[in-house]
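Follow-up to my earlier ticket, as requested here are the two runs.
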Amino acid sequence: MTIPFPAPGDPPRLSEQEFDLLLAAAQPRLRGYVASILGGWSDVDDLVQETNLVLIQKQGVFEAGTNFISWAFRVAYFKATTWRRDRQREGRVVFSETAFQELAAHAEERFTTRDGSSETLAECLKRLPAQERELVEVKYVQRQSLVDHARTLGCSAQSLHKRISRIRLALRDCMRRQSHSERS
């Protein structure tokens, strides 16, 4: 198997781990965006999951250094458009196309212009040792039980809970330092 080398001028790509960190950091904003354009919470989890699947499938087209949140919102918008069309066929749509587009524009502005906490978190996650990043991914991206993961590692669940607590504190401190240095 040959591994293709990027051609000169090809846009930079993220590693799989960098992409996973951006995706994990984007989840709260993505959920808020989707809830805003759906007008409620009933189908948010399903739509966010579908959006995440598309983002993962298309991660190779995402250019490093561009706005990940805007890209994720665009994918979610198209998923929500399909969701709305399906509800419209069922006679369950309560707002017009114009209202839907206005909700989407407002939600994008609201959740895109938020402080850079997702990007700061992603940057702080990159600074963690590999084992700690893996533990964060297991707990918050894969949503695996720490008890189950402890069994896999052959350690106690209590020790993993203590480690994840220390990691959260380290991330919080890192984010505070980053926000202070950005203001200076």
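Run two:
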Amino acid sequence: MVSADQDKILRNPKFQELVRTRSGFAWTLAAIMLVIYLGFVFLVAFAHGLMAAKVGGGVTSVGIVLGLVVIVSAFLLTGIYVQRANGRFDALTRELQKDIA
């Protein structure tokens, strides 16, 4: 059961904006990561020659480099989310707290 205070928060336009903005941004980043990851998996499954190609004259293959790109992109997208959360989302939360208090 929703209390009066919870109902007040849920009906607040700033809370609804915060939820909508944060959810939309999180789903966008999740979709980007999914495309990156599935792209890598499909390359592994269907482009054996490309993934096995050597980079330069060494033993490192394109697959290893792309695998590192997948890992780095996960960290990068996490950093982007944290930056947005510490900036815009925290500002919206502070505005909401002022309205509710």
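The only thing I checked on run two: Residues 62-100 form the longest helix (39 residues). Let me know what else you need.
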